[in-house]
Design a protein that fits this description.
TIM Barrel, about 475 residues, Metallo-dep_Hydrolases_sf, about 30% helix, 12 helices, binds zinc ion, metal-binding, alpha/beta, about 20% strand, seven-stranded parallel β-sheet, metal ion binding, 21 strands, phosphoprotein, Hydantoinase/dihydroPyrase, binds N-(aminocarbonyl)-beta-alanine
């Protein structure tokens, strides 16, 4: 009997630490050996000319998430197919607690959405919209113990926003239970005020979504979240940072020794608020409505500054897909009446790795090792999946992407595997593209096609993150 089930031969193996020419041997879905030559295997994949990297981990995606009258374009099946086609092997989407509902019940319901439908492995973050005494006192501690070791809170959105006292209550539980809190930093009242003012002036086109929540709104909320985190000595992750002002708040906190982490996303290095103008301030701008909104090219440079200097630990997609031409999507009757009602979010899980690789590695802004850290390893470390996920080391899951660093692709909707009817990056040219994605040693994506049985992806009960430990113990 061969020593290994699979050998990946002839490739260049990249981790967050090293770039090495070696083969990989896989046994029982795990990496069993890295060696100059692995020959004794039942199957061989020739990786000559390719990079062999840990599968992407996208720790910020929304799938099958209820959101008022809108319907998300991806459940687990299409969302995870799109993820696999983009070189990802693990997703961490969110189970939302609707106001007044039990958090545990929301998690049970969310598992029903996922069960048997995922092409890749998945953990689950919690979204807390109603921190009632039973949620804070019983449900959250029990859920953290069960492997839901991170949760997100919102400083905006009518149906999600927490006030400052509620934020502090959640932060206090996070500190005690050693869970990592992700914070959506945009100030609710300022957005509401600006929205009403813009609408009163007849400025209702999708472009005004960006005008209703400028960078100062994000900066103010980031500063407030950091101040609350400092008050209680609790680590926080500020998610989807869009530009210089919020980035500098995080850097300021980090320089003061606070455990404040940062995440940015594909749209903040590749789209601008001008995209929200559409063809001529028309409805097509709705395709780009997301929060925080994309800013401008100077903001891209600020985000690169944050990436290259280590302000940001993770680079995510914030995949949050709605169809464009659908009454349940961007072009609902209400959505046409004002930017206020256009569902927030864009599809992007499939293009996260290609765009960061092309803009980052190919253009010489980041190294291959940084690319792997930003797209995989740091997500595993932050969210309690390391070392099982996020690296190519003996004993780790054989979650691997084989990557052609020279392949030139023009992104288009026809290439996408998501459930949305458009991609915001139509016509965007990249160099570098995934060729094969392997989940625990099995090929799930092969040269343009998602392959294998749906439902191979398993739920991941996550450990307490070492990054969630308070500074003062
Ligand atoms: O517009 C966005 N990003 N929608 C997704 C929800 C969120 O705030 O992450
Ligand atoms: Zn958010
Ligand atoms: Zn999000």
């Amino acid at each position: 009997m061969p020593a290994y089930d699979l050998a990946i031969r002839g490739g260049t193996v990249v981790t967050a630490a090293d770039v090495t020419r070696c083969d990989i041997g896989v046994r029982n879905g795990r990496i069993a050996i890295l060696a100059e030559a692995v020959t004794d295997a039942a199957r061989t994949i020739d990786a000559t000319g390719l990079l062999v990297m840990p599968g992407g981990i996208d720790s910020h995606v929304h799938l099958a998430q209820p959101s008022g009258e809108a319907v998300m374009a991806d459940g687990f099946e299409t969302g995870s197919a799109s993820a696999a086609a983009g070189g990802n092997t693990t997703l961490i989407p969110f189970a939302v607690q609707p106001r007044g509902a039990s958090l545990r019940e929301s998690v049970v319901n969310y598992h029903r959405e996922a069960q048997g439908k995922s092409h890749v492995d998945y953990g689950i973050h919690l979204i807390i919209t109603d921190p009632s005494p039973s949620v804070l006192g019983q449900e959250l501690p029990a859920l953290v113990a069960d492997g839901y070791t991170s949760f997100k809170v919102f400083m905006t959105y009518d149906d999600m926003v927490l006030n400052d006292r509620q934020l502090l209550q959640v932060f206090e539980v996070a500190r005690r239970e050693k869970a990592l809190v992700m914070v959506h930093c945009e100030g609710y009242d300022a957005i509401k005020f600006m929205t009403e003012r813009l609408e009163a002036a007849g400025k209702t086109a999708p472009y005004y979504h960006a005008a209703s929540r400028p960078e100062s709104v994000e900066r103010e909320a980031a500063h407030r979240a950091i101040s609350h985190a400092e008050l209680l000595d609790v680590p926080i992750m500020i998610v989807h940072v869009s530009g210089r002002q919020a980035m500098e708040q995080i850097r300021w906190a980090q320089q003061r020794g606070l455990k404040v982490y940062g995440e940015t996303c594909t749209q903040y290095i590749s789209l601008t608020a001008d995209d929200l103008k559409g063809v001529d301030m028309d409805e097509t701008g709705g395709k780009y409505v997301c929060s925080p909104p994309p800013r401008d090219e100077a903001s891209w440079e600020a985000i690169w500054e944050g990436i290259t200097t280590g302000v940001f630990q993770t680079f995510s997609s914030d995949h949050c897909p709605y169809k464009y031409d659908s009454p349940q999507g961007k072009l609902s009757a209400k959505g046409r009446s004002s930017f206020r009602w256009v569902p927030n979010g864009i599809p992007g899980v499939e293009v996260r790795l290609p765009i960061l690789f092309s803009e980052g590695v190919v253009k010489g802004r980041i190294t291959l090792e940084q690319f792997v850290a930003l797209t995989s390893t740091n997500h595993a470390k932050m969210y309690g999946l390391y070392p099982r996920k996020g690296s190519l080391a003996v004993g780790a899951d054989a979650d691997i992407v084989l990557w052609d660093p020279a392949r030139k692709v023009t992104i288009s909707q026809e290439l996408m595997h998501h459930g949305a009817d458009y991609t915001p990056w139509e016509g965007y040219a990249v160099t570098g593209w995934p060729v094969k994605t392997l989940l625990r040693g099995e090929v799930v994506f092969d040269d343009g096609k998602v392959v294998g049985a749906v439902g191979r992806g398993e739920f991941l009960k996550r450990d307490i993150s070492p990054y969630a430990a308070p500074r003062l113990g």
